[in-house]
Write a structure and sequence with these properties.
By secondary structure, the protein is of the alpha+beta class. It has 6 helices and 12 strands.
Length: 256
């Protein structure tokens, strides 16, 4: 993986096709009301129905921004109006684009994406013909670190976590969780791949890495796993199939 020197910068209106690259888009879900005009027109009929079922205005607004941002970003790559995009889901719930009768069928099949949101933050990862997964979590000090780790983490990860205390332990817990979730999402197998069947790094100062996969130990070599610096009080990770790709990180701000 090669990190672009620009860091987080405003995203282009017409991004280039991500050959040999992975693009991560960052957006806030708390858009001002004045910036929401017309965003609902991007949604499909079933998305509008779901929007209407939210009881609280904050939740409906965040859902609207999340789906609208995803559609707009993907539409930029495909040169297709966001309202025309259609999604389907694998048996494990991972979304993908379906071309229908629009544009270049190969392009729709080749554009791979993954989405994660937590708190006020939304992340969208995009690549071409390369499996990937992304996860973001808002760090909370009240999480039951030991009980959750005992249930989901591998013995190796539990042992490493037990060496830490206080907020250092909490930070390491969320590093571990986001890295495991990013890999699970990239694989696309859902919970059929038990979280304790692979190990990730988590100790402070230790680079994000997929340490070991079981029963196939060679599987770990197929993946890059990196930590993303997205915002204070958040942890995020990205898992990408293969090596030799360049990472570009862009902001998708609300229109003013």
């Amino acid at each position: 993986m090669i990190l672009s020197k620009s860091g987080w910068s405003p995203g282009p209106g017409r991004p280039q096709w991500p050959n040999g690259e992975v693009h991560v888009w960052r957006a806030t879900l708390d858009w001002p009301s004045k910036s929401l005009a017309g965003l609902e027109q991007c949604l499909s009929s079933d998305e509008r129905e779901r929007l209407e079922r939210f009881r609280f205005e904050r939740d409906s607004r965040r859902y609207l921004v999340g789906r609208g941002a995803l559609r707009t970003v993907l539409g930029r790559y495909l040169d297709v109006g966001p309202e025309r995009l259609r999604f389907d889901y694998t048996p494990f719930g991972k979304p993908y684009l379906t071309p229908g009768l629009m544009g270049d069928v190969t392009a729709f099949e080749d554009l791979i994406f993954n989405v994660s949101h937590s708190g006020k933050l939304l992340l969208i990862a995009v690549a071409a013909g390369r499996a990937l997964g992304i996860d973001v979590e808002q760090v909370r000090a009240d999480v039951e670190v030991e009980s959750i780790a005992a249930r989901y983490f591998s013995p190796r990860e539990q042992s490493a976590l037990a060496k830490l205390t206080g907020m250092e332990q909490v930070e390491a817990f969320f590093d571990c969780w986001t890295r495991k979730e990013a890999y699970i999402k990239a694989k696309g197998d859902g919970l059929s791949l038990p979280l304790d069947q692979f190990d990730v790094s988590l100790l402070p100062g230790e680079a994000a890495r997929l340490l070991e996969t079981r029963p196939d130990r060679d599987e770990a070599r197929r993946w890059d796993l990196i930590e993303l610096d997205v915002a204070a009080e958040y942890k995020a990770a990205l898992a990408v199939e293969g090596t030799g790709w360049t990472l570009r990180c862009w902001d998708y701000p609300p229109e003013q």
